[in-house]
Amino acid sequence: QVPLVESGGGLVQPGGSLRLSCAASRSSSSINAVGWFRQAPGKGREPVARISSGGSTMYADSVKGRFTISRDNGKNTVYLEMNSLKPEDTAVYYCNTVLRATWLPLGSWGQGTQVTVSS
After folding, report:
1. What is the pLDDT of residue 35?
2. What is the mean pLDDT of each successive set of 10 residues along the chain, which is 119 residues long?
3. CB neighbours of residue 62 within 10 Å
4. Which of 25, 40, 42, 56 lies closest to 114 in space, CA to CA?
5. CB hemisphere CA count around 48 (13 angstroms)
6. Half-sphere CA count of 74, side-chain side, radius 13 A
7. What single-letter DSSP state applies at residue 84?
8. What is the pairing mode between strands 113-117 and 10-12?
């Protein structure tokens, strides 16, 4: 699996928005099904959203209606648009290729990108 690199995290106030990016580390590599995951302090890693190579999406109940996952195949990049952010969304966010129609990660984990929601 081609390594993926996350970016776009930061500090945002409650109710604010951020857009995370997940890009293939090699420009000539294509990526298939991709999932976003997050890990809050003291908790395990949990799935957030996933998108198939064809654009089908799935979301965790906790983010439905607030987060949107999308992809630009020409740029080999997957995005996570996060709106109406809450303090409980604070976590390190990771992306990974996943087995089609599942949350099973297939690649190694990268460094992730920190999202902090706080006033």
Report:
1. 96
2. 90 98 74 93 96 94 98 91 98 96 93 97
3. 13
4. 40
5. 29
6. 0
7. S
8. parallel
Residues 104 and 57: their CA atoms lie apart, in Å, by: 15
Q: Concatenate the DSSP letters of all residues of 22-82 into one string.
A: EEESSTT----SEEEEEE-TTS-EEEEEEE-TT--EEE-TTTTTTEEEEEEGGGTEEEEEE
Tell me the per-residue pLDDT of 46-78, one tens digit each, with 9 for 90 and over: 999 999 988 999 999 999 999 999 999 888 899
On whether the CB atoms of residues 46 and 38 are closer than 8 A, the answer is: yes
Inter-residue contact 93 to 37 (CB < 8 Å): yes
